[in-house]
Design brief:
About 85% of the residues lie in helices and about 0% in strands. The protein contains 3 helices and no strands. The radius of gyration is 18 Å and the shape is elongated.
Length: about 50
């Protein structure tokens, strides 16, 4: 239990980050980021 007491701030930040990622995935932002990454590869690097 002392581990949780010592790292309470880190645990809260980790949970907040996980919640933000989950909300972003729920809103469909992961698809948008993936689409932009594919477009960069297709246009700049010339893959495909």
């Amino acid at each position: 239990m002392s581990f949780l007491k010592q790292n309470r701030a880190a645990l809260l930040l980790l949970l907040a980050g996980a919640a933000c990622v989950a909300i972003g995935v729920w809103r469909g932002e992961a698809e948008t980021v993936f689409r932009k990454a594919v477009n960069i590869c297709m246009e700049c690097i010339g893959l495909g």
